[in-house]
Amino acid sequence: MASSSDKARFLAALRKNPRAARPAVPKAPLTAAKVRRYKERLRAYDAARIELNLATQVEVQQENSIAKRAHLVRVLEFEPRSSHS
Q1: Structure confidence at residue 78 as a pLDDT band (50, 70, 90)
Q2: How many domains are contained in the chain?
Q3: Residue 50: helix, strand or coil by DSSP?
Q4: How far apart are alpha carbons 62 and 58 in whole angstroms?
Q5: In a domain, 57, yes or no
Q6: Predicted TM-score of the model (pTM)
Q7: Is residue 81 in a domain?
Q8: Residue 82 lies in a domain
């Protein structure tokens, strides 16, 4: 869960500058603790953006998703499977 102090800092920063940068990626060598802390800060940043109506939950989800919005799939040819009795 994002810490309230991180969220408060991001709220203040985003009020001053709505284009304030996301938290920076930690420097190498990466450790599990650094990655965990980075992800906590990202969640706080995203929560602040949502609270200030700078982004919607859907927009944040799309920005953070590895799998981008699916494209419409069209079936060009369809041949039903034969049933085995």
Answers
A1: confident
A2: 1
A3: helix
A4: 6
A5: yes
A6: 0.73
A7: no
A8: no
